[in-house]
Amino acid sequence: MDQRWQSEFLHRMRAFEATRAPREGEASVSLKVRVVSGCFHREHSPHAYALIDNFLASHLSRPAEFTFVDHESGPELLIFVAAGIALAKSVIDLVTAIIKARSEGIKNGDRPSGSLEVVVRRVGGGDKYAEEVVIRVEHADPVNTEEIEARINSALKRLVEDQMAKKATRATKRARPRLRRG
Predict the structure, then answer these.
(1) Which of 24, 34, 104, 165 would be 74's cystine partner, CB 3.0–4.6 Å?
(2) What is the pTM of this model?
(3) pLDDT at 120
């Protein structure tokens, strides 16, 4: 793992967490839609980003449940997720819209046209990092919202529950009385 990238990711997640502390049972996660190779950003995918921007403007009238971040490799959503709770429909719809926008953008001249991956990531205590690729799609593949939702929610459940279990274990260890040697 590239240490510089991991440090930037950790900083980005901590800055996001500073906007609102996670509530009890919540964890901050990153949902990344990235190209396997090449780039997927505004400069090389203007048609796709016009569709993404239109989706954001027309479907998210209330305060956002996430932060949208542009990257050269593709957009990232920073969100808070509660353990055992499925991701909000609006976030799943946005991920689906991003994938569809990429396909439409390529049809209208956006380049390059590499595969996309949807990735769920999170940081834990210190500099611990976890990432899971939940699905890979080619630009011409049909988009199945239900499959994307199921795979993302499954990955989130594993990552968030694992993080909550680790927090509980650390709290239990701190709460144990220590025996004194005498």
Answers:
(1) 34
(2) 0.84
(3) 93
